[in-house]
């Protein structure tokens, strides 16, 4: 009887071991660098350009990526809480955030893939399309401005609020004259309907508006900005961003903290590669690597019609 029980236990352990191995193998089969499914957290100010990247990536590979748009603060909290994750940020990880991953024994792979910009917008009725960064900073500090009736942000926890608060050296935005919604779309709609308000949004919401947002984008002006170290006003164009003239440019990063060779690695390589960089270039943002152009040289000119 004892021998039978012994054999039974041994057999049960063997079956359990095989099943666990199959389960682990099944998980590995589900996701590779170009196959499977994964969730990517994306800074809401960057959603349009990442949606384009995902659409092309999924069309080329047997992969399904779920995008979850959040404010920067919410996104970082989600990323560090996950056992493994992928995120798109307009900044690199801080020392404290890196320490959290060190405790998890994960070394995040950081890929810089583009340079974006924060843009100021005003109602089309406002004929003045110039603004000094100094005026915006002073308004953030609670000082009144003859040019600014109010500042409108997408979200109190967003990357745009963080950057402007850092420039103004304030811990929180003023209660008077500064408003926040939830999305960049709401900011554009509000400014399009209200004179004297200055919206603060991610540039790619203007260069790549959703079809249902085009009518609102057409009702706002994108302002040229004078920085603290310049005497000139610069529009947030690709050329001005590339030459370092526009004062509110910011680098964009893919933070791959999966800890294994999954879709995070494949997607990062795709976005930083030739096709991904062409998508960035077409979007109006500045790619990290300028895509090459093929030139065909002909020895003969054909007159055939």
TrEMBL record:
Q: Which UniProt keywords apply?
A: Signal
Domain PBP: residue ranges: 36-273
Q: Kindly name one Pfam family recorded for this protein.
A: PBP_like_2
Q: Which superkingdom, per the lineage?
A: Bacteria
Q: Which InterPro entries match?
A: PBP_domain, Phosphate_ABC_transporter
Q: Does the keyword Acetylation apply?
A: no
Protein name as catalogued? Phosphate ABC transporter substrate-binding protein
């Amino acid at each position: 009887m004892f021998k039978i029980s012994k054999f039974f236990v041994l057999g049960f352990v063997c079956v359990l071991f095989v099943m666990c191995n199959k389960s682990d193998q099944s998980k590995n089969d589900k996701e590779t660098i170009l196959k499977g499914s994964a969730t990517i957290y994306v800074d809401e100010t960057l959603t349009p350009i990442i949606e384009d990247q995902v659409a092309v990536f999924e069309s080329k590979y047997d992969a399904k990526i779920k995008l979850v748009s959040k404010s920067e603060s919410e996104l970082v909290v989600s990323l560090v809480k996950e056992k493994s994750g992928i995120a798109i940020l307009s900044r690199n990880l801080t020392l404290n955030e890196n320490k959290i991953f060190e405790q998890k024994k994960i070394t995040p792979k950081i890929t810089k893939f583009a340079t974006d910009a924060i843009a100021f917008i005003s109602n089309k009725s406002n004929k003045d399309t110039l603004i000094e960064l100094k005026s915006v900073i002073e308004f953030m500090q609670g000082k009144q401005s003859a040019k600014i009736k109010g500042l409108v942000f997408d979200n109190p926890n967003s990357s745009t609020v963080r950057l402007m608060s850092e420039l103004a050296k304030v811990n929180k935005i003023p209660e008077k004259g500064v408003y926040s919604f939830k999305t960049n779309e709401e900011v554009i709609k509000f400014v399009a309907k209200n004179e004297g308000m200055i919206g603060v949004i991610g540039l790619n919401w203007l260069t790549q508006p959703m079809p249902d947002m085009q009518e609102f984008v057409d009702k706002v002006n994108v302002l040229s900005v004078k920085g603290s170290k310049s005497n000139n006003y610069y529009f947030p164009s690709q050329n001005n961003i590339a030459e370092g003239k526009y004062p509110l440019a910011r680098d964009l990063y893919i933070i791959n903290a999966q800890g294994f060779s999954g879709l995070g690695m494949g997607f990062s390589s795709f976005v930083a590669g030739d096709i991904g960089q062409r998508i960035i270039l077409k979007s109006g943002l500045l790619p990290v690597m300028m895509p090459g152009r093929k030139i065909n040289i002909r020895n003969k000119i054909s007159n055939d019609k």
